[in-house]
Amino acid sequence: MRLGSIQGQTLSLCLLLAVMVFVGAELAGRASVGMGLAVGVLIGSFNGFTLQAVVDRRAPILATSIVRLALFSLLSIAAARLIGGSIWSVVLGVGLAQLVMVAVGARQGLRS
């Protein structure tokens, strides 16, 4: 992983976002929702790495997208069960991580 890569920047920002979400939710008295969102953001931050692996292997994007969607959905369900929180908060966190990845990619694209 290169530090300046989209995946590396996404991971760094998602780690920061996860901490901020958890602390904010804890201060608001919604610790279980914050934990779910934070865990989801951390899970979702690895999507860029899996996508890069697919591209590097020249695998078909459509088929692997379905597999990645299933993988991240299963990870979200498992994480929600482990932390005892709601599935929706974990899935929402995964979605937030995707927005971070899009923002990082757009920012890098505009620089080029």
What's the arrangement of secondary structure elements?
Blueprint: H1 6-27, H2 31-44, H3 47-56, H4 61-83, H5 87-111
Helix pairs in contact: 1-2, 1-5, 2-4, 2-5, 3-4, 4-5
Write up what this structure looks like:
The protein has 112 residues and is mainly α. Helix content is 84%, strand content 0%. The protein is flat, with a radius of gyration of 15 Å.
How far apart lie the N and C ends?
20 Å
The number of helical runs is 5
Number of domains: 1
Count of DSSP E strands?
Answer: 0
**Poorly predicted residue ranges:** none
Give the CA-based shape: flat
Gyration radius (Cα, Å) is 15 Å
Average of per-residue pLDDT values: 93
Question: Main β-sheet: number of strands, strand sense, barrel status?
Answer: none
**SSE arrangement, N to C:** HHHHH
How helical, in percent, are the residues? Answer: over 70%
Strand content: under 5%
Find the structural class using helix and strand composition: mainly alpha
Task: Characterize this entry briefly.
This protein has 112 residues and is mostly helical. It contains five helices and no strands. Helix 2 (31-44) runs antiparallel to helix 4 and helix 2 crosses helix 5.
List keywords for this structure.
5 helices, flat, mainly alpha, 112 residues
